[in-house]
Design brief:
Helix content is 37%, strand content 4%. It is mainly alpha-helical and 213 residues long. A two-stranded antiparallel ribbon has the order 1-2. Helix 1 (4-18) runs parallel beside helix 5 (103-117).
């Protein structure tokens, strides 16, 4: 799937927000950022992460293995715990001021999902994805991949048939409804479509907008 998985991560955050388990405008609950009293990363909200405006340094470069964070996260030293690796990056800008596309940002969100639902295994996390989202819209082919820390690698690895990807697209096209049931919160599809200002209209919330000019 590569980055199409990011949009599925957006849907999972929306489900938890609907159920009152996540406040997207509150600081993200990331354990690493609370180990020090004055860690400036504590100010990063879930909304900052959804809009790729965390301010964390992250090189989304697929050509230079020495300087690339994404290659290290997926295939190198960060592969065993992708969320922890991404959360360990330093701030290069104040949260909410700089848009920078980052697969690491999505895996931080996936780690938050894992901790919020109390997943102690990949099977627990997979069950949440299936029960709360995929099976409710008729998707049965999905194979998500997980790292050794039981985190769904929501930046990149969700295998599905083309027909099932179309079903997921229809979920957003229909305002979060699937099979006549409101699967996502009301207005959550609109949340994905609202342009992130610092992206100059190119990006919403974990969705590319394909905007013209």
């Amino acid at each position: 799937s590569w980055s199409m998985a990011k949009s599925v991560t957006h849907a999972l955050i929306g489900i938890l927000a609907r159920d009152g388990q996540i406040d997207i405008y509150a600081p993200a609950r990331v354990p690493r950022w609370n180990r020090k009293i004055r860690d400036p990363r504590k100010a990063i909200t879930v909304e900052n992460l959804l809009r790729m405006e965390s301010g964390l340094a992250f090189s989304e470069d697929y050509s230079n293995v020495r300087s690339s964070n994404v290659l290290q996260m997926l295939f190198g030293r960060g592969r065993l715990d992708t969320a922890e690796y991404a959360a360990g990056q330093v701030l290069e800008a104040d949260p909410g001021t700089l848009w920078s596309y980052s697969s690491g940002t999505t895996n931080i969100l996936s780690g938050i999902i894992r901790d919020t639902i109390g997943a102690n295994s990949a099977a627990d996390y997979r069950g949440f994805i299936n029960d709360s989202l995929l099976q409710r819209i008729g998707i049965h082919s999905a194979i998500p991949e997980f790292d050794a820390a039981n985190t769904f690698i929501g930046s990149s690895y969700l295998h599905m048939t083309a027909r099932d990807w179309a079903r997921f697209g229809l979920l957003y096209l229909r305002g979060g409804q699937g099979a006549g049931v409101q699967v996502l919160p009301a207005q959550w599809a609109d949340h994905a479509r609202i342009p992130t200002p610092n992206s100059h209209g190119r990006y919403g919330a974990h969705f590319w907008l394909n905007a013209v000019d």
